[in-house]
Amino acid sequence: MDISRPHHPASPHRHILHRLHALQQQFRHISPHAMQQAAAEFNIPLSQVAAVVAFYSFFSTQPRGRFDILFSNCTSCGYLSGEQDLMRMLCQLLQVTPGKTRADGLISIDETSCIGMCDQGASLLVNGLPVIGLNAEKLAQIAQRITTESPLADWPAEWFAVHDRVYQRDLLLMEQHAPGSALQTALAQGADRTLAVIQQSGLRGRGGAGFDTGKKWQLCRAAPGSAHYVVCNADEGEPGTFKDRLLLRDHADAMIEGMTLCALVIGAKQGFVYLRGEYRYLLPHLHAALDQRRSQGLLGQHILGYENFEFDIDIVVGAGAYICGEESALIESLEGKPGIPRIRPPFPVTHGYLGQPTIVNNVETFIAAAHIAAHGSAWFNSIGTEQSRGAKILSISGDCEKPGIYEYPFGVRIQQILDDCGARDVQAVQIGGPAGKLLGAAEFNRTISFEDVSTGGSFLVFVQQRDLLAIHRNFAHFFAHESCGFCTPCRIGTQLLKNNLDKIAAGRGTTHDIEALKQLSHLIQHQSHCGLGHTAAHHVLDGLQQFPQTFSAPLQPHFTAQFDLDQALESARQAAHRDDAAAHLDNG
Amino acid sequence: MSDHPSTIRIDDQEIPFTAGQTIMDAALAAGIYIPHLCHYPGLPPSGNCRLCVVETGNRSAAACITPAIAGQEIRNNTPELNEARKAITQMLFVEGNHICPSCEKTGNCKLQAMAYHLGMLDDHFPQFYQRRELDASHPKILLDRSRCILCDLCVRASRDVDQKNVFAIAGRGTDAHLIVNSPSGKLADSTMAVTDLAANICPVGAILIKEQGYQVPIGQRIYDRQTIRETSLQEHVEPKNDD
To answer: Which residues on B lie below 8 Å from A492 (Cβ)?
Structure first.
């Protein structure tokens, strides 16, 4: 039985992820009984439901608080703000331990991977809604409202108001999109000609990998299957990226139009937008955009009056799993399973959703495709570089005066971007998120392009005062948390990498650990199953090469025990209710 | 395009393959051993253990899931790859709680045999000491997750051969663990039987059939008599085909 029933426009409970989200909202957890019911309802094995619940961060088997708070732990929108630990602050105000629901069930506080609010200051999700611009004062007010059980609807609206800041517009962000204009042109000239225009434009996927979009569409169009599918990857989870947040809000119509064009080219009747769970607050807006296009005759049957052109889109909302940004993991998730990357080949263009030919493109790629179809390939490929046509939208955050959204023609120099965003005294930039590239000042004359430094959009700035080892630890914790657990080198290796960096930071590392870091990083990079593993140790290798003192400065010259023996006795002290001097090792 | 229409070259040996075969299929058919733990001929490949990663050109690929292509030049038995395989085996040892000296699977255990094969002399990495749930509910079968290496063989055997779908893997990262497809999550409430392939295919001591642990004395067990290289070239199960 097909669990997502793709030919019926979305009802909130049609998809297992949506059903489980509703259960989590209603009961604050998903009980074994609820899992059995869901398994029966969707006619899938109970073990599949249990595996899905265990896989996605936003589901839990133990009750969470009526106010369930998740602090972002990203280096830009995370809870470590300057000298302050905002999560600890709120925990103290509300007498709660991170990760444990308070006994009265009122509140639970934990952390989650980047929620895409990197230009909005420290941020959290409360019952799934983002609250931005956190500081000590606001946390005190939040604690007050939680203690008095003030419903979220009564909280000040400005706490939830995400104001996008666009500082630099180019090709896509300057363009005014007239709904249906690209489709009119495409339908008038036919699918063959439309595909040719996309191919001539030189458009490459904007997610970071940069596969030729026209070629992808052509391969999918040529692939035999009982149905073809169009999927928009709106699961931008790379810490430091947030440009899809703007695009989904202000350019949703162009994105949908791009998907519809793709449907025309490959012969699809059904599309999906896979929206990251952190952006659930954009769901009503996206549904409205879809409804408006249906009412305009731009979605549904007989699009623009063409008898044989039928296409509609469902939105599936993720539930907290970075790996679902990988296209085959995303398809697994669409099919109601844990997001474990598939064996490739075969690739989704021939064997994707339900085993049928499927296009998965990024939000920005579909928007670019819509404008290219409307304005022609020359409009697009006249700017950029030889191998990177067009412009790229960047999410810039970290230590700069003007964090926000910037669009540049490909080939822009990193130094120019730093000048524009008001970054001074810069030690390093991390481009493409933790999976991307770490560059020091000597490399700031390099350019953003597929042939030089490629990025899906994330651009993190770190000034001289930043402790880079803390950044590396943050990234290593991120990958250890987000590894899907499928393959040995990534599952265990990311954990070992994290432990190794923690050990060095704790002052227990020796020179031997540097060699160990290198070997481990190479192993994870070369032996892993998917892109997450292939890139998870990049930051360590870049750091060892460019900033070796980051790792060597805290090292101990002599033998140091792998673990803190006194700390290891802590559980014994707790059991014995002792904390006197005799219950501690003599460290002198 | 190629001078070798249906052959591939593994290290210095040229071997034939047929359309649809993976590098692993072709290698095993030709008597070439590529170390592996999660692969079992006859079951669909998974590609999770990564021991069978080989190099073709400048790319790394898991032999069990990578199609053989005419003219492929594959490096398999190299010092670098065998070092990586040893490190992966060490990772599996420190992730679980492996108790070789007192484990009744000792001598019949593929993880242990692989460690010997690769010349592994220590764990190298610090132990994780994870707490993992033991399920002794079934009268005849013991499930000890401490010794599980998440190879997925029992999952595939139960689903594709036994046609019972008793197992699945749940949880992310090092939280990943084997779960049982029954309302209580216990093996006793599942349809598992000792005669199932899933009860017998576990390469380690995670799924053990009760009351037969020491019937074969130490010294006469599988890997006391043969190396894992030799046994791995002989293995095969027949998948059920009743579609």
So the answer is: 91-92, 94-95, 125, 174
The pLDDT tens digits for A71-123 are 999 999 999 987 899 999 999 999 999 999 999 999 999 999 999 999 999 99
**Which residue stretches of A484-569 are H helix?**
488-505, 511-527, 531-536, 538-546, 548-552, 565-568
> Hey, what amino acid is at B65?
I
**By C-alpha distance, which of A325, A545, A549, A532 is closest to A436?**
A532
B170 to chain A: nearest residue by CA?
A51
Within this chain, do residues A281 and A245 fall inside the same structural domain, yes or no?
A: yes
Interface probe for A, chosen from B50, B88, B122, B156 (most Cβ of A below 10 Å), is: B50
Residue A564 within any structural domain of the chain:
no
A335 within domain boundaries: yes
Minimal CA separation from B210 to chain A, in Å: 25
Residues A282 and A430 in one domain: no
Structural domain count of chain A: 4
CATH number, domain of A192, equals: 3.40.50.11540
Provide the domain limits for residue A133. Answer: 67-159
Which among A32, A485, A526 is the nearest to B173, CB-wise? A485
CA distances (Å), origin A325, targets A209, A232, A280, B33: 12, 10, 16, 36
Beta bridge partners of A67: A107
In residues, how long is chain B?
Answer: 243
One domain, residues A219 and A352: yes
Supply the pLDDT for residue A559. Answer: 79
Q: Which residues pair with A405 in a beta bridge?
A: A166, A395
Q: What ipTM describes this predicted complex?
A: 0.96
